Amino acid sequence: MNNADLLMLRFGEITLKGKNRSRFEKAVLTHVKRLLASFPKARITKEFGRLYIELGGEPYGQLLKPLTRIFGISSIIPVKEVPSDLEMIQSAAREYIGSLPLKEGTRFKVNARRVWKEFPHSSQELNKVISGPLLQEFPALKVDLHEPELEMRVEVRQTRTFLYSKIIPGAGGFPHGTNGKALLLLSGGIDSPVAGWSALRRGLEIECVHFHSYPFTSRKAEEKVIELAKVLSEYGGAVKLHLVPFTEIQTAFAKEGQNNLIITLMRRAMLRIATKLAEAGGALALVTGESLGQVASQTLPSMNVIGRATELPLLRPLVMMDKDEIIALAQKIGTYELSILPYEDCCTLFIPKSPTTNPNLRIVESMEQHMDGLEEMIELAVKNTVTMTLTPESAARLHEETESESGRQSLSQSLPEREESEDETIPEKWF
Amino acid sequence: MKYFDHAASTPPHQDVVQTIAEVMERHYGNPSSLHRAGEDSAKLLRRAREVCAQALSVQPGEIVFTSGATESNNLAVKGAAFQYIKRGKHIVTTTVEHPSVYEACRHLELLGFEVTYVPVQADGRAAADQVLQSVRKDTVLVSVMHVNNETGSIQPVEDIGRRLKAEHPRVLFHVDGVQGFGKVPLALSESGIDLYSLSAHKIRGPKGTGLLYVHSGVKLFPQLSGGGQEGGMRSGTENVPSLVGMAKAFRLAKDASEANVRNWRLLQSWIVDEISGIPGLVLNSSAEAAVSAPHIIHFSYPGMKPEVLLHCLEDEGMAVSTKSACSSKISEPSRILLAMGKDRETASSGIRISLGDEHTMDDAKELIHALKAAVQRLNGLKGGMK
């Protein structure tokens, strides 16, 4: 059907949540309203615990994709609306079925519901008087009450009647931000963006942190992470990204000469920095893309030693998932193509030939204690962290001659905010 | 000179020219290089891709930049045929496609592919039913243009696409959209279209750039091997300045489309009325919105070499076209007009008027005035020419 009059949005799990329900619904409403800003003719209404978008002539095809990204919506249903009058309902049903590509022998049923009890025909009668003429007119239809491929639903209400058949699955989960805030360690690989998406789906607001080792990693690696954060922002509205300079710490570890422990040490330092950033931003947990046994640093002994570096809860949404499942999710949410771009992140540098899968906590702790200035380096990395706020619309930055490194704000200068400002974007006049 | 040959090429938009010049001067880095100069070019390219994707309401990852519509069409037709050769070796197209689709199909025939050329009706349109009926078990691709470049006739591609996907979901559907973009609305992503070719210079962009929309998940066998640019589908260092200019041109064309179409329809119906009243001229296109694109008017002057009329009009300061520009130097009957069932004389004497953004009713009046004068001059000579 290409001429829906309205979209019916149904909530999922959140309908179970007694007192919190109105808060959750409000969160969804806010997101939908923001989305509708670019569709001026569409209006949103709330009725009987459902949300309706009255399209007012806006093409719903373009609305659909962003709507399927709003968490808390379990399904989206394009609806045709007619006055509650039997003849008009019948003719709308005929037009509706006529607009669908029907193949021979389509299993079909009408499922009518009389919500408005004054309507002269009962639900049972409605099924008959609507399906009868349809079956006559469309010989391709075959009645099947148990396993219909095409179920024409009709809801008769006092003010209007709804017709629909197609139910488009929504994103599910909890509305963004309704379960608090967490900090995501975003590497640029396949897993961490999926972990971020999982956190968002569970109603967490996320900030992202990325560790870079320029000049050992290229700026393109950083750009790639920015793009990934932008994809996540399509699900979460706006996402903060903290870029942490990690070169100094990493090279210091490399000089220690304990190559098989370097990944363990790095991961612990990252968790320490992330913990400080989380505390500064009011996040109550860290989210990582770790999956049990995937690499040396993700064995159970490694997780044990690394995880002790933070007191915050470590959320690992992918921990028990297989790589295939993670890849499939990455493809679905639109991060896979970016993730496989071949730019190195800091973890793929200085990779020892045989990283330990079973680090010894005592040795690791003693190395950290004996390293000169590790605590200071961690403090400095936090201080020199650059933060930017990304939205799906954020333009890519161009390194114009005028942009100096000092143009980036750092934590030391009051608030670590960096909105994307006009002068450092690609001149939009070119497009 | 008044230029009425926009279906052949258009005057580039001033802003497009300026953008290209500025980008060319400032961003010469190779988008694949790792330094900042390269990175900046890569960013420009990315933004250009986003803007093109927006103009088509598709995803940026579905845009493959090419050197123009001829390449896009070749990549679509041959790339799909070679990639999915294991599914079969049969292609369905029409008798009125642009040479870059038609000849690509002919070349595939030399390599053992079978091609069904669906005929068109007198109005130049193929029947969707007939296209669908031509699909076989071993069909890999259906390729139908949106708007014909000679006559402006609109093919029922939305209908074909929807039905094809309902009945044969595995068969790919390619649409040559070159003459349709900005002229005839097309719901690209809702019409089952897998591949869609566009060219920049038909919509006031630069020559030498175009794109192919490749629906996500569809693979094509590359026609150019090399450094793996454009997702491996089209190697070769990207033409950054022109691609940025193209993105701008698509956006401008889309924004201006509604107003342009309204203007063209007015001019077109007036011109068509006038031409139908000139003795000796035969209309091959109509002004009916469902049948003809708004910017093309096509007629024949049977018994007269079309070049003669073209030159007479040029003397009056009017530039029009014989056949399509690509093949207009050969004096052969038009394959398209023959396919529409026109006799050889009519098919050999076609003249195309195509409108642009800048045209007004005054321009149309001048054109018709010149046309009437030229025909009057030539009518007397017609007998003696043969």
Key descriptive features of the protein:
heterodimer; A: alpha/beta; Rossmann fold; 2 domains; 6-stranded mixed sheet; 15 strands; B: 386 residues; Aspartate Aminotransferase, domain 1; Aspartate Aminotransferase, domain 2; 4-stranded antiparallel sheet
Textual characterization of the structure:
The complex is a heterodimer of chains A (431) and B (386). Chain A is an alpha/beta fold. Chain A has 2 domains: 6-169, 2-Layer Sandwich (VC0802-like); 181-430, Rossmann fold. Chain A has helices at 21-36, 60-67, 86-98, 123-137, 191-201, 219-236, 247-255, 262-281, 300-307, 323-333, 336-339, 361-370, 374-383, and strands spanning 6-11, 43-47, 50-54, 73-82, 106-114, 141-143, 150-156, 161-164, 168-169, 181-185, 205-212, 239-245, 286-287, 314-315, 386-390. In chain A, strand 2 (43-47) and strand 3 (50-54) form a beta hairpin. The two termini of chain A are 35 Å apart. With 386 residues, chain B is of the alpha/beta class. Chain B has 2 domains: 2-8 and 256-378, Aspartate Aminotransferase, domain 1 (Alpha-Beta Complex), CATH 3.90.1150; 14-251, Aspartate Aminotransferase, domain 2 (3-Layer(aba) Sandwich), CATH 3.40.640.10. Chain B has helices spanning 14-26, 36-56, 69-83, 99-110, 128-133, 157-167, 240-276, 306-315, 335-339, 344-347, 361-379, 382-385; strands at residues 2-3, 63-66, 90-94, 114-118, 139-143, 172-176, 195-199, 210-214, 282-283, 296-300, 318-319, 321-322, 350-354. In chain B, the strands form 3 sheets. Chain B has a 7-stranded mixed β-sheet with strand order 2-8-7-6-5-3-4, sandwiched between helices. The model of chain B has no long low-confidence stretch (mean pLDDT 93). Chains A and B meet through helix 6 of A and helix 1, helix 2, helix 6 and helix 7 of B.
- Assembly annotation: heterodimer
Straight-line distance between termini of chain A: 35 Å
**Could you name the CATH topology of the largest domain in chain A?**
Rossmann fold
- Our measurement of the CA-to-CA distance between the termini of chain B, rounded to an integer number of angstroms, reads 31 Å
Question: H/E element string of chain A?
Answer: EHEEHEHEHEEEEEHEHEHHEHEHHHHE
The percentage of residues in β strands of chain B lies in 5-15%
Proportion of beta-strand residues of chain A? 15-25%
Give me the CATH superfamily of the largest domain in chain A: HUPs
Low-pLDDT segments, ≥5 res of chain A: 399-424
